[in-house]
Design brief:
The chain is an alpha+beta fold and about 80 residues long. The chain is about 30% helix and about 35% strand.
Length: about 80
């Protein structure tokens, strides 16, 4: 697992789709271009939809790791507006 300079992190395991993407989007919008966000999310719809949606927004998905407990660690780099 690579080491990243994480600017912020957000845990969205307590919400369901589509709120998961909304919370992730708000968190990444608060960062500066090039900053890296760590997101903890649940298996199922969140892990299928959040990385794809952030990528569609133009951000760079750097890593998606299974934590082995039904959650995932998603590392995303903000790409300029």
């Amino acid at each position: 697992m690579a080491e990243y300079n994480i600017a912020d992190s957000v845990d969205i395991t307590d919400v369901t789709c589509p709120v998961t993407f909304v919370k992730a989007k708000v968190a990444i919008e608060e960062l500066d271009d090039g900053d890296i966000l760590e997101i903890r999310l649940n298996d199922g719809e969140p892990v299928q939809n959040v990385p794809r949606s952030l990528k569609e927004e133009g951000h760079r998905v750097l890593e998606l790791t299974d934590n082995g407990d039904g959650t995932y660690r998603l590392i995303v780099q903000k790409v300029g507006d």
